[in-house]
Amino acid sequence: MDAVIRKWGNSLAIRLPVSVMSEARLSLEQPVSITAQEGRIIIEPAQRVEYSLDALVAGITAKNLHDEVSFGAPVGNEAL
User: Fold this and answer.
1) Beta pairing, strands 6-8 & 32-37
2) How confident is the model at residue 50 (pLDDT cuts 50, 70, 90)?
3) Residue 41 CA to chain centroid, in angstroms?
4) Could you write out the three-class secondary structure of the chain?
5) Range name among 2-11, 28-37, 44-53 with the lowest pLDDT average
6) Less packed terminus of the chain by CB within 10 Å, N or C?
7) Phi, psi of 68, rounded to the nearest 5 degrees
8) Beta carbons of 55 and 36 less than 8 angstroms apart
């Protein structure tokens, strides 16, 4: 199947037919990874990274822990 690259705002775009999307098992609004390799453009489903709060907290060390920052006294209707 042939397509034409067109201008879309300040970027370039190509329309993907539904049949190609179905064959590639991709869907509308799905995050994808785009790479160029040996003169080809490769579009793949993005690897979804799952984070857990326990794993993130376990990564806190004395070396990467930041000091408290003061932004000054309240100037409006901030809840304290």
Assistant:
1) unpaired
2) confident
3) 18
4) CCCCCEEECCEEECCCCHHHHHHCCCCCCCCEEEEEECCEEEEEECCCCCCCHHHHHHCCCCCCCCCCCCCCCCCCCCCC
5) 44-53
6) C
7) -65, 145
8) no
pTM value surpassing 0.85? no
Q: How is residue 12 written in tokens?
A: 């370039």
Q: What's the pLDDT band for 76 if we cut at 50, 70, 90?
A: confident
Task: Over range 41-63, report the average pLDDT.
Answer: 92
Closest CA to 1 of 10, 15, 9: 15
